[in-house]
Each structure stands twice: as C-alpha cells, then as structure tokens.
C-alpha cells in the first residue's frame, strides 16, 4: 500500500500554482508524484481549501481564454502552394476545442447564454398557440 501523502503548505501552494498556470490535474499530480484523486479529495476536505481550488480553476479558465488570442493570431504555416490546409484544419480544431474547454471550465463566464424574454424583450417568454382549421382560418 502506498504511503500516505504528507500535505504541507508548500505542496498545497505548488498544486494551486500549477493549476493556475494551466496544468491539467494529471500534469499537476505527475509533477508532485501524487495521485490526481488525492488532489481532489484533499482540496475538498475543508471549505477553505475547496475555495482555493475553485479559484485556481477559474484563474486557469481565464488564462486559457487569453491563450485563445495567441492561437487565433498564430501565423499560418505555408507551403510552396500557399497556406498549409492541414495546418489550418488542425488549428481550427484546436481553437474549437480550446473554446469548448474554457466554456466547460467556467460556464457562468464563458458558456453560451440563452435569454428567453416575452414581448418587446421584457417579461417572461409567452407561447401563443393558434389552431388553424381546414379552411385556413384561425379557430
């Protein structure tokens, strides 16, 4: 059976800093020679640690969002025939994946927002159902 992890303030800080820097949970665990599940369990053990972890995840989502600018502004790879179409396809897939990850990591800030309103953009959504008879007239 593996030895229990000795959580120190330094280890907690290292984990939080790695997450804020954009490392995945797996990468953080690998860097610190611990199990990814141990990180989650430890940071859920108290409200204060849970808040630190949640804050780190939000910071990572913000950093990932900012990284989209770099990806979008990347200079395309070129061949003697022009822009490399394989590179363009790879980049499009990469950017779409980054957008999806950012939206999932911080739904409230970066997720799709759906607004349903009533008449003139105010009030609750109203649904009107009209039955049309066989003669084409409203019933």
TL;DR?
With 139 residues, this protein is mostly helical. The chain has helices at 9-20, 25-31, 36-43, 47-72, 85-105, 107-110, and strands spanning 78-79, 82-83.
Write the layout of secondary structure elements.
Blueprint: H1 9-20, H2 25-31, H3 36-43, H4 47-72, E1 78-79, E2 82-83, H5 85-105, H6 107-110
Antiparallel strand pairs: 1-2
Helix pairs in contact: 1-4, 4-5
pLDDT average, as an integer?
85
* End-to-end separation: 75 Å
CATH topology: Arc Repressor Mutant, subunit A
Name the structural class.
mainly alpha
Overall helicity: 55-70%
Number of domains: 1
Q: What is the CATH superfamily label?
A: Homeodomain-like
The CATH class designation is: Mainly Alpha
User: DSSP strand (E) fraction?
Assistant: under 5%
What is the CATH architecture descriptor? Orthogonal Bundle
| Poorly predicted parts | none
Task: Report the major sheet.
Answer: 2 strands, antiparallel
Question: Which H/E pattern describes the elements?
Answer: HHHHEEHH
Main sheet strand line-up: 1-2
Question: What does this protein look like?
Answer:
- There is one protein chain.
- The chain has one domain (9-121): Homeodomain-like (Arc Repressor Mutant, subunit A, Orthogonal Bundle), CATH 1.10.10.60.
- Helices cover 56% and strands 3% of the residues.
- It has six helices and two strands; from the N terminus they run ααααββαα.
- A hairpin with a 2-residue loop joins β1 and β2.
- The N and C termini lie far apart (75 Å).
List keywords for this structure.
139 residues; mainly alpha; Arc Repressor Mutant, subunit A; two-stranded antiparallel sheet; 6 helices; flat
